[in-house]
Amino acid sequence: MAAATAGSACVTIVGFVDSEPGRLFNAAAVCAGGRVRGVYRKRLLPNYSVFDEQRYFAAGTEPLMLWGVAGVDVGITVCEDAWVDDGPVARLGEGGADLVVNINASPFHIAKVLERERNLIRRAAESGCPQVYVNLVGGQDELVFDGASMIVDASGQVIHRLVSFAPELSVVDLEVQSRQPTTLPVVELSTQSAASAQPVLAPHSAPMLPETAEVYEALVLGTRDYVAKNGFTDVVVGLSGGVDSTLVAAVAVDALGPDHVHGVAMPSRYSSEHSLSDAAELATRLGIDFRTVPIEAGHAAMLNMLSESFGDAELGLTGENLQSRLRAVVLMALSNQFGWLVLTTSNKSESAVGYSTLYGDSAGGLAVIKDVPKLLVYRLCRHRNDVAAAAGAVPPIPGSVLDKPPSAELRPDQRDDQSLPAYEVLDPLLEAYVEGDTSIADLINDGHDPAVTGRIVALVDRAEYKRRQSPPGLRVTTKAFGKDRRLPITNAYRG
Amino acid sequence: MAAATAGSACVTIVGFVDSEPGRLFNAAAVCAGGRVRGVYRKRLLPNYSVFDEQRYFAAGTEPLMLWGVAGVDVGITVCEDAWVDDGPVARLGEGGADLVVNINASPFHIAKVLERERNLIRRAAESGCPQVYVNLVGGQDELVFDGASMIVDASGQVIHRLVSFAPELSVVDLEVQSRQPTTLPVVELSTQSAASAQPVLAPHSAPMLPETAEVYEALVLGTRDYVAKNGFTDVVVGLSGGVDSTLVAAVAVDALGPDHVHGVAMPSRYSSEHSLSDAAELATRLGIDFRTVPIEAGHAAMLNMLSESFGDAELGLTGENLQSRLRAVVLMALSNQFGWLVLTTSNKSESAVGYSTLYGDSAGGLAVIKDVPKLLVYRLCRHRNDVAAAAGAVPPIPGSVLDKPPSAELRPDQRDDQSLPAYEVLDPLLEAYVEGDTSIADLINDGHDPAVTGRIVALVDRAEYKRRQSPPGLRVTTKAFGKDRRLPITNAYRG
């Protein structure tokens, strides 16, 4: 990348891992005139949430400096450096920076763009100069980097936004006040303006996405990149006719195209007629491959195999889990034979309380909606239909999928609300306990029913062993199960 | 615990989480005369290997002090504080400490006791006083805390060892040189010697365990505590007649007693006669419950269910994985119905190269030998038989289990060495790559075959997705898969 700057007035800033014996640094290389002219080493290393940087990197401690580009003295920082008050950006401003560039691999969560914007406005105020915020785009396991790069001027106005969830090249002309003299050393990189030598793209600002739309786009990008970057082209989804598998199939089609998505209905003796017809209707509307593999023969054979051990005992949960696991065996066999990645359809509400079967419905390669609570699953489905309707297309999700009460259909007439409170009660409680780290006492003070709170907290705590073995899933909230929330399984603390 | 020191000359040091608004500290409370007399906050917070302390704790920065106990000025440190040269222990020595007590939650790995001993000898030399090292005993998810507390005198001699892998109370009389004056402040806790008021236990030193014995004991303690602390009494193990499930069953019996271990043979159409007879013979020798659940009926039913999708295609690996997954379905059904925890029997060599079936043989609640390479599995089996023979008992492990070539028996005449190099080649390569972080170039320089090295490294890299969903397993090496080795699944780097 440095070589590509030869013969051009362009200065390139590129993130890389810098090293010296025994130490690594999260760093930015400053490239001009065909070579690396200098390096900035990240000073603030996040070690919270999904970040483990203090495990791997040493903090940069070199004196700050500025980089002269066509008469503008540019300060450079990396990600976290711009997230603290009175930190490196303030020092660069004091030292005479005319402009600060901040390069990022900043993962998405709901409304993160607004958080970044608030931060940049504070940085502009304390440094007195424009802030150029550049962010990675793409999926990496559980994280989705959403791009949404932006420029905030010295007065704190957002003057340019790039798109979210897609790469974009943008050339922006900025009004920059040159502030002399500087007290920081300046490395002169270029005295010529690149703008005069190259055509300038007309600046245009991308709109900020509403919350539901941004989550949907995050799921699409995260799914597309997880599948492609891991060498897959096709995915398979078990279609139950329920809202979770429906959303996952719709996301998969938007991520990969209908030709690369395979739906499988696996009715059991307890499945309703409408489950199968809703699944088939969804597949038709999405235009995907669809097959039906009834699990009755395997179910009966396994019960017979186990009859000597079980005798006449009621099977209860054992029988329910058995069906769920046989479906996973079917999906994994299709995966093994045809090279399709299994998309898991468990949502965050289920995963939180352990309302899923280990090696059953929680099995698969990527858990697309693992961090999406049930009520948001519904909102995302409606959003997808609204998008279709607005474009004059047939809404992909059948209305009956959205209207019927949620059920696992693992015993006759089963409904989620026989085991769990209504999702209108459950989801806010889970958000407060899981994402908010709220104690039981505070949850009750905040108006949650004491008995429900005690029961749900106990379920969440007890289900840690299931979550430990769950597939990676796309993170869309401030705290996903996984690297965000590291709890022991063996744990006598409660609440 | 502080209250229990009332009316006694005893001073108690107990680890706890200290806090102030917005910050937590890993701390030791010093209790005497019925109350907490002071607190030492850990200064050095490990953030490598299995440790994440910088995520949760702030480092203690208060001035060091000493605690006067019956005329002896005692310095107190916590764990990592004693693992660095010229650190807190050296400062305590300079300040006049007559004795340093170091409290620990230090997890076991092979030969860790010797590492601790070397550290304490350096601490004694630089501080000029005896070192009392006290360590936790017990299992906590993947970690086994082995106890093995010890005292090193001022000359660097280990003068007392407590047992490994079991709690022990020991009262030891020490020759302590009082060094006056001290330059650190001293809090006088007690002027009376406790020794004069209470009978002194005769000091005795426990022997250090040889490597194979200490690993075996770690597996037994880790299994016992994981099972009991998570509310289980009984476990179930799939017995294939192979060496891995044999070792796991033997460990389980030593951890829980034969009445709490249930063995299940699940022969398929490809299982050999000797597999079933070896499993039955093992169960008889161990005195455990044993049942046979042939999987043929389920196997045939599933193949039939999938025949429309598969047509006449050769199933190959798909068919092998199917059998393995049906066995997991059987074990999980027994677990659900009877409340038995499933013990997983995958070893570290298999887990490293992905020679296992996701949701099949890698499924279960605790992977007892997940961090035990195959050759060590054999050594542990022989060790267990030697212990029995030395005690005049029948060796629990049939000789035929140890003598036959390893096979997954998922197709006719299958043997591990058709897919993998001999374990004598594989295990050292895996140790160098996984535990030693050795690059491909260095592996080849060190004499590993280039083609084998490239192939095995690629297998290890590619199997990350399987390991991500594997159950917790007991850590016995310096680097276990899990918290020790955090790699992305989506990863284009190789070797």
Would you write up a description of this structure?
2 copies of one chain form a homodimer. Chain A has about 500 residues and is an alpha/beta fold. Chain A starts with 11 loop residues before the first strand and ends in a 27-residue tail after the last helix. In chain A, helix 7 links the parallel strand 14 and strand 15. The mean pLDDT of chain A is about 95. The first copy, chain A, is elongated and about 90 Å long. The first copy, chain A, has 2 domains: about 5-195, Nitrilase/N-carbamoyl-D-aminoacid amidohydrolase (4-Layer Sandwich), CATH 3.60.110; about 210-415, HUPs (Rossmann fold). Chain A is built from 16 helices and 17 strands.
Descriptive terms for the model:
homodimer, 495 residues, alpha/beta, Nitrilase/N-carbamoyl-D-aminoacid amidohydrolase, Rossmann fold, 2 domains, seven-stranded mixed beta sheet, five-stranded parallel beta sheet, 16 helices
CATH architecture of the largest domain in chain A: 3-Layer(aba) Sandwich
Strand content of chain A: 15-25%
CATH class of the largest domain in chain A equals Alpha Beta
Give the class of chain A from helix and strand content and strand pairing. Answer: alpha/beta
DSSP helical segment count of chain A: 16
CATH superfamily of the largest domain in chain A: HUPs
Give the gist of this structure:
By secondary structure, the first copy, chain A, is of the alpha/beta class. Helices cover 36% and strands 18% of the residues of chain A. Chain A has two domains: 3-197, Nitrilase/N-carbamoyl-D-aminoacid amidohydrolase; 211-415, Rossmann fold.
